[in-house]
């Protein structure tokens, strides 16, 4: 009766009264796991995140599958809520169950997102990308069917896994099995959000049909620079007229199927640029109605300046420096050779946490290496962090900037 009353109060928007009602119900029968779950939800709704986290984590081993899964999903939502307001330390503490002391050894709840690199090979050599300037710094290959089956078996055992990104540092469309892999992830795991990033140079009518039917939710198309010519200069091997034609083709097939297409536009910061990057006019004109995310280019871990890139430099943007990263608490990365690497910013696979041929993703996730990174991050011990963290734009705020002489800045229009 009290539970139903509390739900009714929540439905009417009186979250404080709902929390009190659910709390009373739990005090009357503290052994009832569904009541623990309801009170945990109510506490989260009124912003008592520490208490909600502690309660919901107690349900991880519940024999009631509905309660167990509900608690894990509620905790994922708490993590995302903290991230949405840039409270990354609290998000990490939710993942660790930090207020109960259970995460004091760096053990975290299993990730909500997994990143699977369907192809570490790429058909471009972009100036601002670690893959582009250090192509031979790591093994380049496509994800093969046998390893994908191994990955799939692992992911089936992770409850409340929400999303998957089929991309890291290569070009996903180089893998002819991409669409079938996406379909199986949607059909055989708890994942319901899948996206990837592409340069669109390899998009064909046949691939567009397959992508429209495979269950992918979003596709980001990379077009960089402030003009078509600058895109081709930055993204070496790209040809803007081909990209424009192929993206138009993708819109024709994918938008009616409900697939969201988004342009990812990175520009190299120049002296005098505004604090927030401005979307170039040519993209607005060529792709009316399409979302465009314009940002200044990061300096990825492992990026090195070559002799031909004398116009580029690395500077710190203080507004971007965070000094903390939530990635080791929320998502894992699997490369085509089975390596599990630290995070999505380590696109060269520098910091290997383990390999799926020697252990499960769950074992690696809470293995010694991951736990050590989490503890160092929570303690603010920069010296104890791996080099890939200390040289990551999320932590350092570093950007690749351009210092060209007498180079006019093309007209730009804000979205």
TrEMBL record:
Pfam name, any one: Radical_SAM
Keyword Iron listed: yes
PROSITE patterns: RADICAL_SAM
Spans annotated as Disordered: 1-25
Keywords from the UniProt entry: 4Fe-4S, Iron, Iron-sulfur, Metal-binding, Plasmid, S-adenosyl-L-methionine
Domain Radical SAM core: 108-328
Protein name: Radical SAM/SPASM domain-containing protein
Cofactor or coenzyme needed: [4Fe-4S] cluster
Organism: Azospirillum brasilense
Coiled-coil segments on the chain, per record: none
InterPro entries tied to this protein: 4Fe4S-binding_SPASM_dom (IPR023885), AdoMet-like_SPASM_containing (IPR034391), Aldolase_TIM (IPR013785), rSAM (IPR007197), rSAM_sf (IPR058240), Sulphatase_maturase_rSAM (IPR023867), TPR-like_helical_dom_sf (IPR011990)
Family: Belongs to the radical SAM superfamily. Anaerobic sulfatase-maturating enzyme family.
A single GO molecular function term of this UniProt record: iron-sulfur cluster binding
């Amino acid at each position: 009766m009290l539970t139903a009353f509390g739900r009714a109060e929540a439905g009417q928007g009186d979250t404080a009264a709902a929390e009190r009602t659910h709390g009373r119900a739990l005090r009357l029968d503290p052994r009832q796991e569904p009541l623990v779950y309801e009170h945990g939800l109510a506490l989260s709704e009124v912003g008592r995140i520490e208490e909600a986290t502690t309660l919901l984590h107690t349900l991880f081993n519940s024999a009631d599958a509905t309660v167990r899964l509900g608690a894990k999903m509620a905790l994922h939502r708490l993590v995302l809520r903290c991230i949405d307001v840039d409270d990354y330390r609290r998000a990490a503490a939710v993942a660790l169950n930090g207020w109960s002391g259970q995460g004091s050894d760096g053990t975290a709840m299993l990730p909500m997102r997994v990143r699977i690199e369907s192809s570490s090979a790429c058909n471009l050599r972009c100036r601002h990308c670690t893959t582009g300037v250090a192509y031979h710094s790591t093994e380049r290959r496509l994800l093969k069917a046998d390893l994908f089956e191994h990955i799939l078996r692992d992911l089936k055992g992770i409850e409340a896994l929400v999303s998957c990104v089929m991309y890291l540092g290569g070009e996903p469309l180089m893998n002819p099995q991409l669409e079938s892999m996406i379909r199986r992830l949607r059909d055989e795991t708890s994942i319901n959000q899948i996206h990837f990033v592409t340069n669109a140079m390899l998009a064909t009518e046949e691939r567009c049909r397959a992508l429209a039917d495979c269950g992918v939710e979003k596709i980001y198309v990379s077009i960089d620079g402030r003009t078509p010519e600058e895109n081709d200069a930055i993204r070496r091997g790209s040809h803007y007229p081909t990209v424009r034609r192929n993206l138009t083709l993708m819109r024709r097939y994918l938008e009616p199927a409900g697939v969201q297409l988004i342009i990812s536009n990175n520009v190299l910061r120049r002296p005098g640029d505004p604090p927030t990057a401005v979307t170039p006019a040519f993209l607005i004109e060529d792709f009316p109605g399409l979302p465009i995310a314009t940002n200044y280019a990061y300096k990825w871990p492992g990026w090195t300046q070559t002799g031909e890139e004398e116009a580029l430099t690395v500077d710190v943007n203080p507004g971007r420096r965070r000094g903390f990263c939530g990635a080791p608490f929320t998502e894992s990365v699997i490369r085509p050779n089975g390596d599990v690497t630290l995070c999505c910013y380590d696109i060269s696979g520098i910091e290997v946490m383990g390999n799926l041929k020697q252990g499960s993703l769950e074992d690696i996730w809470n293995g010694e290496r991951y736990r050590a990174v989490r503890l160092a991050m929570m303690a603010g011990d920069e010296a104890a962090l791996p080099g890939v963290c200390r040289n990551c734009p999320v932590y350092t705020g570093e950007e690749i900037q351009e210092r060209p002489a007498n180079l006019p800045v093309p007209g730009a229009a804000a979205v």
